[in-house]
Amino acid sequence: MSWEYFSPQNPCPVCDGITSDCRKPRDSDIILCHHFIDTQSSTPGYKFIKPTADRIWGIHVLDDGEKEPWQQRIEKYNSLRDREKRTQRLKQSQSLPIQERSHHNRIMLQSLSLDDDHQKS
Ligand SMILES: [Zn+2]
User: Fold this and answer.
1) Where do runs of H (alpha helix) occur along 1-121?
2) What is the pTM of this model?
3) Ligand 1 center to residue 17 CA distance, Å?
4) Separation of CA 15 and ligand 1 centre (Å)
């Protein structure tokens, strides 16, 4: 998933930049806010949905009264996530098994050398 990160120059619209660790998936109306993790913010226009499974962020969705209801925006986000998970599972199923990958990685690492800066004195 491609992310847009908020910063002091581009503050999170949910917490207005109280923390700088908020983000949003590109092409979505979802905000993952690191300040309002389990509660609604006082910022109008955003609806608190729930904390993320790891409880690091609160999931907020744009609810600005425009023609697209927030439920539809959440469905789009979930669909995007599901598609991404399927793509990731497909990639994993097409890659080498972990033991074989580890074996090849070790062979590759053994062929590399250290620079003088990497040597312990
Ligand atoms: Zn925020």
Assistant:
1) 70-94, 98-110
2) 0.70
3) 6
4) 4
